[in-house]
Amino acid sequence: MNPLLFDLLMTFVAGFLDAVGVTFLSGIYVSFMSGNSVSAGLAIQSGNVAAAAPIFCMIGGFVVGAFLGTILFERPTVVALVIFSEVALIFLSIFAVGRMIDYLALLPVSMAMGMQNAIPRSISGVSIGRTFITGALFGIGQSLARALSDRSRLRDAALHGASWVVLLIGAAIGALSLARLGLITCLGASIVVLSGVTLIDSFLRFRARRGSV
Questions:
Q1: Which positions ≥6 away from 140 have C-beta within 8 Å?
Q2: What is the pLDDT at residue 51?
Q3: Which one of 61, 100, 111, 198 counts the least CB within 10 Å of its CB?
């Protein structure tokens, strides 16, 4: 599979799941940890420990996911193993919904998003396929500035812009899907997309290796 298409689809899933999570949890994100950190600070300032606790729980889950994803990726393995570990965590959330407090039920999704960020993916040196987008917006401005003296940097700006647009679309579809289809269906849909993309990518890589022998 084309690396750009693969990474943009991963970015789409990240936006989709974050919109589903923040809507279902009434303001707590499963991957946007900058937003969660600001919210946690505001909760602490107001002395609202009950509001801060679930936010810190999500932040901790994201860090644990990044830790586990890094360990998996740095061993002799493939990207598919990390992503299927994400899928397993999302399955765990599906099982937990209705059986646990809402934010604990979605904690595995936050871990999954942390794992996704541990995959070092880049197109022409531009990192995409991640669950946060502030860096992409900065990258647009930075690349455009550098394009004033080097027009080849316009491609970098376009890649950053594509990553932002795809995450935006994923978030919009995620919010709409949650309202119309419900949480379980949304989580299931993300599993289908992640699994399908990874299987196709793995098959194409396998066929390419066989063809080069």
A1: 157, 160, 161, 164
A2: 93
A3: 100
| Whole-number Å distance between alpha carbons of 6 and 213 | 25
Quick one: CA torsion of 20, 103, 190, 78, rounded to 10 degrees? 130
156-178 confidence digits (pLDDT tens): 889 889 989 999 999 999 999 99
Secondary structure of 3-51 in HEC code, one letter for each residue: HHHHHHHHHHHHHHHHHHHHHHCCCCCCCCHHHHHHHHHHHHHCCCHHH
Of 60, 51, 61, nearest in space to 25 by CA: 51
Q: Which residues of 106-122 are buried (b: 16+ CB within 10 A; e: fewer)?
A: bbbbbbbbbbbbbbebe
Assess contact for 70 and 83: CB atoms under 8 A. no
pLDDT at residue 13, as a whole number: 93
For 89-114, write each residue's pLDDT tens digit.
999 999 999 999 999 999 999 999 99
CA 3/CA 107 separation, integer angstroms? 29
CB 6 within 8 A of CB 17: no
- For the chain, which residues score pLDDT lower than 50? 76
- The three-point CA angle 186-57-165 to 5° equals 45
Asked if residue 89 lies in contact with residue 112, where contact means CB atoms within 8 angstroms, the answer is yes
Torsion of CA 59, 115, 160, 188, to 10 degrees: -90
